[in-house]
Amino acid sequence: MGKLAINIVDKAGVRVPLLVEELNKAYCDEWLAYIQYMAGAQVASGMPRPNLLLELEEHAAEELDHAKKLAKRIIELGGTPIIEPKMWYKYSTCGYAAPKDPDAKIILEQNLQSERCAISVYNKLINMLDGRDPVTHKLLVKILEEELEHEQDLEDIEADVKSLNCKKK
Ligand code: MG
Ligand code: FE
Ligand code: FE
User: Cα of 48 to ligand 2 centre, how many Å?
Assistant: First the structure.
Protein backbone atom coordinates (compact mmCIF):
# COMPACT_ATOMS: atom_id res chain seq x y z
CA MET A 1 0.00 0.00 0.00
CA GLY A 2 1.47 3.35 -1.03
CA LYS A 3 0.57 5.96 1.57
CA LEU A 4 1.55 8.94 -0.56
CA ALA A 5 -0.07 7.32 -3.60
CA ILE A 6 -3.40 7.16 -1.77
CA ASN A 7 -2.99 10.68 -0.40
CA ILE A 8 -2.41 12.20 -3.82
CA VAL A 9 -5.51 10.57 -5.26
CA ASP A 10 -7.58 11.46 -2.20
CA LYS A 11 -6.48 15.12 -2.32
CA ALA A 12 -7.43 15.26 -6.01
CA GLY A 13 -11.00 14.59 -4.88
CA VAL A 14 -11.32 10.93 -5.75
CA ARG A 15 -12.95 8.70 -3.15
CA VAL A 16 -10.25 6.04 -2.98
CA PRO A 17 -12.40 3.20 -1.53
CA LEU A 18 -14.97 3.79 -4.27
CA LEU A 19 -12.27 3.80 -6.95
CA VAL A 20 -10.80 0.58 -5.53
CA GLU A 21 -14.26 -0.99 -5.66
CA GLU A 22 -14.69 -0.01 -9.31
CA LEU A 23 -11.21 -1.28 -10.19
CA ASN A 24 -12.01 -4.52 -8.41
CA LYS A 25 -15.21 -4.94 -10.44
CA ALA A 26 -13.19 -4.45 -13.62
CA TYR A 27 -10.64 -6.95 -12.26
CA CYS A 28 -13.42 -9.56 -11.92
CA ASP A 29 -14.54 -8.80 -15.48
CA GLU A 30 -11.01 -9.35 -16.76
CA TRP A 31 -10.65 -12.75 -15.08
CA LEU A 32 -13.97 -13.89 -16.52
CA ALA A 33 -13.05 -12.51 -19.95
CA TYR A 34 -9.78 -14.41 -19.78
CA ILE A 35 -11.56 -17.67 -18.98
CA GLN A 36 -14.29 -17.06 -21.55
CA TYR A 37 -11.67 -16.60 -24.27
CA MET A 38 -9.62 -19.62 -23.17
CA ALA A 39 -12.66 -21.89 -22.93
CA GLY A 40 -13.94 -20.62 -26.28
CA ALA A 41 -10.59 -21.30 -27.96
CA GLN A 42 -10.62 -24.85 -26.56
CA VAL A 43 -14.10 -25.86 -27.74
CA ALA A 44 -14.68 -23.76 -30.88
CA SER A 45 -15.40 -25.72 -34.03
CA GLY A 46 -16.40 -24.91 -37.57
CA MET A 47 -15.67 -21.86 -39.68
CA PRO A 48 -13.96 -19.40 -38.93
CA ARG A 49 -11.99 -21.58 -36.56
CA PRO A 50 -8.29 -21.27 -37.52
CA ASN A 51 -8.40 -17.49 -37.67
CA LEU A 52 -10.55 -17.19 -34.62
CA LEU A 53 -8.44 -19.49 -32.42
CA LEU A 54 -5.33 -17.34 -32.77
CA GLU A 55 -7.28 -14.22 -31.98
CA LEU A 56 -9.09 -15.76 -28.98
CA GLU A 57 -5.84 -16.97 -27.46
CA GLU A 58 -4.15 -13.64 -28.05
CA HIS A 59 -7.05 -11.80 -26.45
CA ALA A 60 -7.07 -14.19 -23.49
CA ALA A 61 -3.43 -13.32 -22.80
CA GLU A 62 -4.24 -9.62 -23.01
CA GLU A 63 -7.22 -9.91 -20.62
CA LEU A 64 -4.95 -11.68 -18.13
CA ASP A 65 -2.49 -8.82 -18.49
CA HIS A 66 -5.31 -6.35 -17.79
CA ALA A 67 -6.15 -8.27 -14.61
CA LYS A 68 -2.50 -8.13 -13.53
CA LYS A 69 -2.24 -4.41 -14.10
CA LEU A 70 -5.52 -3.72 -12.28
CA ALA A 71 -4.35 -5.84 -9.33
CA LYS A 72 -1.15 -3.81 -9.11
CA ARG A 73 -3.07 -0.52 -9.06
CA ILE A 74 -5.64 -1.82 -6.54
CA ILE A 75 -2.79 -2.71 -4.18
CA GLU A 76 -1.08 0.66 -4.67
CA LEU A 77 -4.37 2.28 -3.65
CA GLY A 78 -4.53 0.22 -0.47
CA GLY A 79 -7.09 -2.31 -1.65
CA THR A 80 -7.05 -6.07 -2.08
CA PRO A 81 -7.85 -7.67 -5.42
CA ILE A 82 -10.80 -10.05 -5.32
CA ILE A 83 -8.98 -13.37 -5.54
CA GLU A 84 -11.90 -15.70 -4.81
CA PRO A 85 -13.35 -16.94 -8.15
CA LYS A 86 -16.82 -17.34 -6.62
CA MET A 87 -16.83 -13.60 -6.05
CA TRP A 88 -15.96 -12.79 -9.67
CA TYR A 89 -19.50 -13.55 -10.77
CA LYS A 90 -20.89 -11.44 -7.99
CA TYR A 91 -18.85 -8.33 -8.73
CA SER A 92 -18.52 -8.64 -12.48
CA THR A 93 -20.42 -6.17 -14.66
CA CYS A 94 -20.08 -8.07 -17.94
CA GLY A 95 -20.54 -11.57 -16.53
CA TYR A 96 -19.46 -14.82 -18.12
CA ALA A 97 -20.93 -16.31 -21.29
CA ALA A 98 -19.95 -19.99 -21.23
CA PRO A 99 -19.23 -21.24 -24.76
CA LYS A 100 -21.88 -23.96 -24.43
CA ASP A 101 -22.43 -24.01 -28.17
CA PRO A 102 -19.09 -24.79 -29.84
CA ASP A 103 -20.16 -23.14 -33.10
CA ALA A 104 -17.29 -20.73 -33.76
CA LYS A 105 -19.67 -18.08 -35.08
CA ILE A 106 -21.65 -18.11 -31.82
CA ILE A 107 -18.46 -17.95 -29.75
CA LEU A 108 -17.34 -15.01 -31.85
CA GLU A 109 -20.65 -13.25 -31.20
CA GLN A 110 -20.49 -13.92 -27.42
CA ASN A 111 -17.01 -12.48 -27.19
CA LEU A 112 -17.96 -9.48 -29.27
CA GLN A 113 -20.76 -8.70 -26.81
CA SER A 114 -18.34 -9.05 -23.89
CA GLU A 115 -15.86 -6.68 -25.53
CA ARG A 116 -18.58 -4.09 -26.03
CA CYS A 117 -19.50 -4.41 -22.37
CA ALA A 118 -15.83 -3.95 -21.38
CA ILE A 119 -15.60 -0.86 -23.58
CA SER A 120 -18.55 0.75 -21.83
CA VAL A 121 -17.17 -0.19 -18.37
CA TYR A 122 -13.81 1.48 -19.07
CA ASN A 123 -15.41 4.47 -20.72
CA LYS A 124 -17.55 5.09 -17.64
CA LEU A 125 -14.59 4.69 -15.30
CA ILE A 126 -12.43 7.06 -17.32
CA ASN A 127 -15.22 9.65 -17.30
CA MET A 128 -15.73 9.16 -13.58
CA LEU A 129 -12.03 9.83 -12.91
CA ASP A 130 -12.05 12.88 -15.15
CA GLY A 131 -8.23 12.99 -15.15
CA ARG A 132 -8.03 13.38 -11.36
CA ASP A 133 -5.82 10.35 -10.86
CA PRO A 134 -3.40 10.45 -13.81
CA VAL A 135 -1.82 7.05 -13.10
CA THR A 136 -5.12 5.15 -12.95
CA HIS A 137 -6.41 7.28 -15.82
CA LYS A 138 -3.46 6.30 -18.01
CA LEU A 139 -3.87 2.62 -17.11
CA LEU A 140 -7.58 2.63 -17.93
CA VAL A 141 -7.03 4.43 -21.23
CA LYS A 142 -4.39 1.86 -22.20
CA ILE A 143 -6.78 -1.00 -21.35
CA LEU A 144 -9.64 0.70 -23.23
CA GLU A 145 -7.40 1.03 -26.28
CA GLU A 146 -6.83 -2.72 -26.24
CA GLU A 147 -10.54 -3.47 -25.73
CA LEU A 148 -11.29 -1.33 -28.80
CA GLU A 149 -8.70 -3.32 -30.71
CA HIS A 150 -10.34 -6.56 -29.53
CA GLU A 151 -13.72 -5.40 -30.78
CA GLN A 152 -12.20 -4.47 -34.15
CA ASP A 153 -10.38 -7.82 -34.48
CA LEU A 154 -13.58 -9.75 -33.82
CA GLU A 155 -15.61 -7.53 -36.15
CA ASP A 156 -13.03 -8.15 -38.88
CA ILE A 157 -13.45 -11.92 -38.51
CA GLU A 158 -17.23 -11.50 -38.49
CA ALA A 159 -16.98 -9.53 -41.75
CA ASP A 160 -14.82 -12.29 -43.30
CA VAL A 161 -17.44 -14.88 -42.40
CA LYS A 162 -20.23 -12.75 -43.87
CA SER A 163 -18.38 -12.19 -47.15
CA LEU A 164 -17.62 -15.92 -47.44
CA ASN A 165 -21.30 -16.71 -46.90
CA CYS A 166 -22.26 -14.23 -49.63
CA LYS A 167 -19.87 -15.83 -52.14
CA LYS A 168 -21.38 -19.26 -51.51
CA LYS A 169 -24.87 -18.14 -52.49
MG1 MG B 1 -6.11 -9.19 -31.36
FE1 FE C 1 -9.61 -6.64 -20.89
FE1 FE D 1 -10.91 -7.47 -24.43
Answer: 23
> What pLDDT digit, counting tens, does each position of 94-127 carry?
999 999 999 999 999 999 999 999 999 999 999 9
Neighbours of 126 (CB within 10 A): 16
- Give the domain range for residue 113: 3-168
Considering its fold, how many domains does the chain have in total?
A: 1
Contact 32, 94 (CB under 8 A): yes
Q: Tell me the CA distances in angstroms from 14 to 9, 17, 36, 58, 82, one per residue in order.
A: 6, 9, 32, 34, 21
- Any idea what DSSP says for residue 77? T
Q: How far is the CA of 166 from the centre of ligand 3 (A)?
A: 28
> Is the confidence at residue 169, as pLDDT, over 70?
no
CATH number for the domain spanning 22: value is 1.20.1260.10
The bound ligand whose nearest atom lies closest to the alpha carbon of 112 is: 3
In the chain, helix, strand, coil percent, each to 5? Answer: 80, 0, 20
**What's the gap in Å between 139 CA and the centre of ligand 2?**
12
